[in-house]
Amino acid sequence: MKLAAARAAHSCFAIVIACDLDCSLASNLRPCATSRVRFDVETTKGAESFTLKVHSDWAPIGAARFKELVEAEFYHDTRFFRVIPSFMVQFGLSGDAAKNAHWRAKTIKDEPVKMSNKPGYITFAKTGAPNSRTTQLFINYVDNQRLDGMGFAPFGEVEGDGMAVVKRIFDCGERPNQGQIQSQGNSYLDASFPTLSKIVSVTIIEPSKEEI
To answer: 24-59 burial by CB neighbour count: b if 16+ within 10 A, else e?
Structure first.
């Protein structure tokens, strides 16, 4: 799955989603209107974190798939394999080849682009074919409005100064081969690109008592 060009980094990720109390995820996988995802990251600078706010009203299908993947722990121990500082950072291929094969067939439908691809907004990657979104994501480094007309629908945004952390993700360009990641997972990446940034864990949490 291509978007444009990019680079990845030595980063750890712990993703934490806190949904509004009055929201529920039904069998159709519709998430609550807003939720927050905390990324605990280990960059070349050391341990850092940033928060992603998910807006299901921006792109309900994409937001629901993201939540489904987080609940399935799909992003545990994965890598940032495309990073282009003048464009975006991409991730979302499993380190387990069997998981990639399973989810590759579980595409989701396209949906209207309600928000533009602004800096810090997160969006599903896709091919030029209709309804081709699966698991891959990218965070816009710059204003990529040109992607709006191509059907790339953002469903969340990095909050506060979190993009300073995202921009410290190791720059690997587009050197990692996505086909080999799909078929070999982390065994290929760790052998050939040991310095890639890493998503370590993804954890869904309930709102704190203060938030309730």
So the answer is: ebeeebbbbebbbbbbbbbbeeeebebbbbbbbebb
Q: How far apart are the first and last CA of the chain?
A: 40
Instruction: Give the neighbor-by-neighbor strand order of the sheet with 137-140.
Output: 198-199, 78-84, 88-91, 137-140, 121-124, 154-158, 46-55, 34-43, 14-19, 201-205
Q: What one-character DSSP code corresponds to residue 206?
A: P
Average pLDDT over residues 192-212: 73
Read off the DSSP letter of residue 163.
Answer: H
Reduced to 3 states (helix: H, G, I; strand: E, B; else coil), residue 130 is coil
Q: Which helix (H) or strand (E) holds 192?
A: helix 186-192
14-205: which CATH topology? Cyclophilin (2.40.100)
Q: What is the pTM of this model?
A: 0.84
β-sheet bridge partners, residue 105: none
Q: Would you list the domain boundaries of the chain?
A: 14-205
110-135 pLDDT, tens digit per residue, is 999 999 999 999 999 999 999 999 99
Closest CA to 135 of 162, 163, 101: 101
3-class SS of residue 42: strand
**Of 65, 82, 73, which is closest to residue 30 (Cα–Cα)?**
65
Residue written as token pair 């995202």: 166
The one-character DSSP state at 32 is P
